[in-house]
């Protein structure tokens, strides 16, 4: 099952990311995963929060353009080469990983978790489950 990622573009200025983080915190929203990629003039920010609907509403209320995307939260064995357990079955199924970034925390089994965007989300979840890779749905928001 997929989870919601929220993406925004911020001006690449000191304090801009802090302002967004503070606003979400004031609203009681916890950032569970975050990726920030900069260009000269802007920063692309991707987040998974514990309340994606409220996150979208808060960000839109302050005038930000918000994009939502289904992504997958996947448990990764925490040892050298552990990511191969996730990537190998995806490669075999001809599923492209567009990007990934770490989840801030660990799952119930104390393994690392990554957030992944792929070109075939539903198929990827099915392939990973068949290969004994633990995927998370909405319960990831509560971890």
Helix percentage: 25-40%
- Major sheet attributes: 7 strands, antiparallel
The tally of domains stands at: 2
What does the overall shape look like? globular
What's the helix count? 4
Radius of gyration: 16 Å
Task: State the end-to-end distance.
Answer: 16 Å
CATH topology of the largest domain: VC0802-like
User: What is the number of beta strands?
Assistant: 7
Quickly give the structural class: alpha+beta
> What is the residue-averaged pLDDT?
92
Task: Estimate the strand proportion.
Answer: 35-45%
Low-pLDDT residue spans: none
Q: Mind telling me the CATH superfamily name of the largest domain?
A: VC0802-like
Q: Summarize the helix and strand pattern as letters.
A: EHEEHEHEEHE
In the CATH scheme, the class of the largest domain would be Alpha Beta
How does CATH name the architecture of the largest domain? 2-Layer Sandwich
